[in-house]
Amino acid sequence: MPVDTVLYNTKVYTHGRLIEAGLAVDEGRIFKIAKETNLPPASAKLDLKGNVTLPGLIDSHVHLRNQQLAYKEDFFTGTAAAAAGGITLTIDMPNNKPVTMDSKSLRERMKLAEKRVVVNVAFYSAFPKDLEEVSSIVEEGAVAFKLYMSQEIGGLDVDDDDMLLHAFKDVGKMGAPIAVHAEDREMLENMRRKMEKAGRKDVEAYVKAHPPQAEIKATKRIIQLTKKSSAHLHFCHVSSAVALNAILKAKNTGYPFTCEVTPHHLLMSSEHLKRYGTLALADPPLGNKDDVKALWIALKHGSIDTLASDHAPHTMEEKEVESVWDAEPGIPGLETMLPLLLAQVNDGHLTMADLVKLTSEKPAQIFDLRGRGSLNAGNCADIVVVDMNQEYKIDSSRFYSKAKYSPFDSWKVKGKPVKTFVNGQLVMDEGEIVAKPGTGQIVRWES
Ligand code: NCD
Ligand code: ZN
Ligand code: ZN
Ligand code: ZN
Questions:
Q1: Quick check: CB of 95 below 6 Å from ligand 1?
Q2: pTM of the predicted model, to two decimals?
Q3: Helix, strand, coil percentages, rounded to 5, for the chain
Q4: Position 444 in a domain
Q5: Which H or E element spans position 252?
Q6: What is the distance in A from the centroid of ligand 4 to the CA of 101?
Q7: 377's torsion region: left (phi>0), alpha (psi -120 to 50) or beta?
């Protein structure tokens, strides 16, 4: 019996390096990686023209919206954007309308996604009101919990240490990780009131209202709490040098802490925010040049665990407003993350091994996504083919995301995702989405 597909004439990233080989794919899985002459007969053969084959990216911080926020993004447009960006699995954040925060809302979201997604999708849940629900949320298939310390999203009072500790202990028992947005709510609210009172409505006032002190205060508080539980804590979008240092110290104590950085915090600073205005506004805001430098140093030391887009789409009307306090923070990132990172590889700032580790291998480990995150026989055939030689400018008007803008618009990059396979099926070919909605799968927590 021939296998479904053989991909040939490519360099495959497997076992930590690029090798001249081909891939045999069968029934959605990688059957064999070997020299072309050693691959089995196939029903279809595809010439990859010498391009590089990588594990599809796992983007562990994505806001796919849908439901009452479908005017910003929906399961089809969001996952089409992922496919175009070489991302084969997105983990969906819970700050939706309604909020994903119990087994019922999670089930509803999974049901809506099932028929619409073109890449694989896993889900976060916010904490439920009733902590008894924690186990049923995991049993329903959430791969992680999300805690917002900057505002109340979900059922927990974020100012109540006892409740947080109770929740962390319960989640720790289930083994699922907890991702945290670490900014102190009270400090943000006080600073914002001060700025508004002073009549400020510019982006620099917004930066002042999100000081590094807010990030460090929340970070230190949650580190102490986590140490009293057995939970695995994952820090989202680390933006300041001081918070980063606290996290690095905590990681060294042997507790299971991990952290994520976004491409925008790595490649832009508050200077860009001044230049691009609210299009570059995200929470937490872009750091200053020293913050960016600290993130790069940690990245090169191997102390950053994951890179994730924090794809946070809003409408243009929600971005282009008179006062910064009316602006929605968030940057669409699914279609720019891999191109920007490939450009960094081409420039020698990042190795291909680092890229794969940060965007595939580590996310698969942290969120326990079995059979994913690397190209090995037996694993799911979630694959991206990249042309390392294409030079072009990022063009946000061509995004599949409903959010057709980007602070990275017109940035020159070198390196392009040209084909994306999800569960062995070609979903993106030369920038076109070629798969039907529903080609992606819902990926559930496995105990
Ligand atoms: C996110 C959003 O729009 O949902 N916005 C953002 O600026 N990052 C929320 C979040 O991730 O904090
Ligand atoms: Zn309990
Ligand atoms: Zn956040
Ligand atoms: Zn986010």
A1: yes
A2: 0.98
A3: 35, 25, 40
A4: no
A5: helix 241-252
A6: 16
A7: beta
